[in-house]
Amino acid sequence: MKEISILVGGKAGDGIRQAGHIIARLLNRIGYRIFFYDDYPSLIRGGHNFSIIRASEKRIVAHKEMVDVIVALNQDAVDNHKHRLNTGGIILYDSKKADAEGIGFDFMDIVKKFDGKPIMRNTAAIGALAGVLNIEWSVLEKVIKDAVEHEIDLNLKIVKHAYDRIENPSKSVTKLDQKALPLVSGNEAIALGAVKAGLNMYIAYPMTPASAILHYLAAQENELGVVTVHPESEIGVALMALGAAYAGARAMVGTSGGGFALMTEALSLAGQGELPMVIVEAQRPGPSTGVPTYTMQGDLAFVVHAGHGEILRVVLGPGDAEEAFYTTGLAMNLAWKFQIPAFVLSDKHLSESIFSFEADLDKVKPEEPLLWNNQGEYKRYLDTQNGISPLAFPGNPSAIIKATSYEHDEIGITTEEPEAISRMQRKRLRKRKTLEDELEKYETVKIYGNPESKTVLLCWGSTKGACIEVAEALDLKVVQPLILEPLPVNALKKALTGADKIIDVEVNATGQLAKLISSHGFCIDDMILRFDARPFTVDVLLDNVKEVLS
């Protein structure tokens, strides 16, 4: 078996995500590449939760609508997902909580045999699943010991009893001759990329789907050397980050669209004061509260145009965990090199999904900004040829260091004189050409599939995973801009040259990337948009593309 997809479902409180993690680790341990998708409502208890673990012998960064095994801890998991089951698929279910055609066990009865807790039904389900898949006990035992933090011996007894109940494995999963890889979420990759680029301080007010960055960095605070702060609001978050940057600390903030809306005044302050600021904007559906625990690519236009006045910024849109790692490191270095706001534009699908991770950690390292040489009078906003002024920080006895929201002269003194105002505007905007030249050193547009195909799937962010597999199936070309502002127009022209048909694929209702690149003269022929707060799966997108091409 080269690939298998497993759906585990139940209600909040059943430990669905934890069970999914252990299943992912189990398949990872025997050499499979993993993509893990998590689906849950905004409820503490109740509601329907499910996770899909897709495992393949090849690298994957998307999941499929159809699955091979359903592990059902209640009837909802059967009723909501039985239509997903591939021909020959299996439903493994808790016979006291659900009824289905498949393999049923009373998981709670197994738990009670060992005086376990009700949540340990998920442990029993994992044991039964491993038996169904004919995975060696020694592998399962090692994964349980590594993954379970409390009452390990009790969990092992439960999982072993359930494992032994399966006498005839139904779907034997072959052990692959590939080493296990780290399993990393998009949010964890973002955090690690920032740390490798010199992150000193992470400041955030919890907001799904960015919250896990705060939790991860706080838990690893001592090991990673990053101070984590949880202020009273997103307004406080952004202003605190600017204060940290003024003092010389490499700070990053994380939020979603509603939280970023509160940060836009501070964004304009960063533009006027030329203060470095890295902002992770993990998108979810809007407007307003929207659908808090689901996904959308609806904030591209907002992030590209946010703030009052004319502000230089860079916006990066990673599509998987490796790109999240690299682009966050790049965002940190660009913010400090150019003294501008830098955005990492993620979404729930990228931020909270889990990937097999193969990044080269040594490729990201902090780059030094332009520092003052301590000679002569310090001018915080020195008007230079490329627009970048040397930095100094408080504590330097040779410099008076200004930071201001008001228009100012080179020293930082408030001004309302026409000549001085236009001079400083030109100085700040002059950095754009320098930034565009800098970005030419990097891969700003990626191409996948058949580079000679005349039909192009245009995508950005987490939609790339499904697009790549559809392109491979239909012999198409995929073009994915990694930099969304300043848009890499020349690289896009090169990538799209010769295309007869450009199909824009986005998870929003209005085609925001299509609008953005159309404003630079590109012509989009068709759009495939999904805006029900769910990501594209490979098989659904394949059907959509076939329909457009027919």
Structure description:
There is one protein chain. This protein is of the alpha/beta class. It has 3 domains: 3-165, Pyruvate-ferredoxin Oxidoreductase, domain 3, CATH 3.40.920; 185-363, 3-Layer(aba) Sandwich (Rossmann fold), CATH 3.40.50.970; 445-549, Rossmann fold. 38% of the residues lie in helices and 20% in strands. The protein contains 19 helices and 20 strands. It has helices at residues 16-29, 75-81, 107-113, 121-132, 137-147, 152-165, 186-196, 211-219, 221-224, 234-246, 257-273, 300-305, 321-338, 348-352, 418-439, 464-474, 489-496, 512-518, 538-549, and strands spanning 3-12, 33-39, 46-56, 67-72, 85-94, 103-105, 183-185, 201-204, 227-229, 251-255, 277-283, 314-316, 341-347, 354-356, 445-449, 455-458, 477-481, 483-485, 501-506, 526-529. The chain has an 8-stranded mixed sheet with strand order 6-5-4-1-3-2-14-7, sandwiched between helices. It has a 7-stranded mixed sheet with strand order 9-8-10-11-13-12-18, sandwiched between helices. Strand 19 (501-506), helix 18 (512-518) and strand 20 form a beta-alpha-beta unit. Helix 1 crosses helix 5 (137-147) and helix 10 runs parallel beside helix 11. The longest helix is centred in the last third of the chain and has 22 residues, at 418-439. The protein is globular and about 85 Å long. The model has no long low-confidence stretch (mean pLDDT 96).
